[in-house]
Amino acid sequence: MAARIYTDKDADLRWLKRKTCAVIGFGAQGRAQALNLRDSGVKVTVGLYSGSKSRVRARRSGLIVLGTAEAARRGDIIFLALSDTQMPAIYAAQIAPNLHSGQTLLFAHGFAIYYRTIVPPKDVDVVMVAPKGLGPMVRREFLRGRGAPGLIAIHQNPSRRARQTALAWAKGIGCTRAGVLQTSFREETETDLFGEQAVLCGGTSALIRAGFETLVNAGYPPELAYFECLHELKFIVDLIYEEGIAGMRTLISDTAKWGELTVGRKIIDQTVQKHMRSALREIRSGKFAREFIREMNTGRARYANLLREAQKHPIEKVGARLRGLMAWKAKTKST
User: The dihedral of CA 296, 302, 307, 308: what is its sign?
Assistant: First the structure.
């Protein structure tokens, strides 16, 4: 069954304008959503601890900055714009003691609620508004008069207005301009983790490294392998993003098209799908979350070692040198 999609006409921003929206954290997603809400005419406060370097940045953006606990106390809607690892401790120490009946806790990802690293009181609404894009994209698309698509979900609804709140927030940050899908905390969490592990981050980076190693081991220059297996990937991803997979095929050469149609399925075969199904089972059973939480809470030694080993891969050294020759990259970053 197709998911329901909400657009601007389904959301009433006036509902949000009667509220105080407290954004806890001012990282990429927190900053983007706070600024979008402000530009939509919504009253926004930012909650940050006293020593946070983001306080100056938030104030320079024209936002009211309070301590985390005070922002949580004053907010009608409290958006936890924090990482999955930071969130439980900050919630327990500074947010939970200041919650009161009638408030709304808002999340951009379902992990903390679905895996119960946070258990809210029963007298507050708990909703999710998850833009399908990183913070800079959420802000950039909003400023262009467009929007990043998003998801909404309802976990607790004692007020019977939780969906109205979620849709209004989605409209305030621009998501309803592109379309918002209704889902659940469970579905969002499991599909998000699977996408990161199997395709977007884990699968893509493993495929790039494998291609690079295959060419280098066959005697080709590592610089050439870098360009073919990593650098040009952006061009193809941009085509897929804009036109879909079938649309991408119409824009590449016949040689590339024939290779994609006949060889791609030999590389990403049933064995890969078998491993994908295994990864999904571990996500759905909670095994991945338990192992991740345990690693985060016990010194992160394996996590740090895996990061160090990944950073030592030859593709990183070659890539850093080649990217350093692309003077236009520095100009792009500064704009």
Answer: positive
Q: Give catalytic residue positions.
A: 109
Q: What is the pLDDT of residues 123-171, one digit of tens each?
A: 999 999 999 999 999 999 999 999 999 999 999 999 999 999 999 999 9
Q: What's the pLDDT score for residue 4? A: 86
CB 173 within 8 A of CB 181: no
How big is the CA angle at 199 (ends 198 and 204), to the nearest 5 degrees? Answer: 110
> What is the rounded CA–CA span in Å between residue 146 and residue 11?
16
pTM of the predicted protein model: 0.91
Residue pair 190/283 in contact (Cβ under 8 Å)? The answer is yes
Whether 36 and 61 have beta carbons less than 8 Å apart is answered as: no
329: CB partners within 8 A, 6+ apart:
323
| Alpha carbons 121 and 113: distance in angstroms, whole number | 12
Which candidate, 115, 113, 107, places its Cα nearest to that of 150? 107
Q: Is 60 exceeded by the pLDDT of residue 230?
A: yes
| Residues β-bridged to residue 180 | 6, 150
Residue type, 277: R
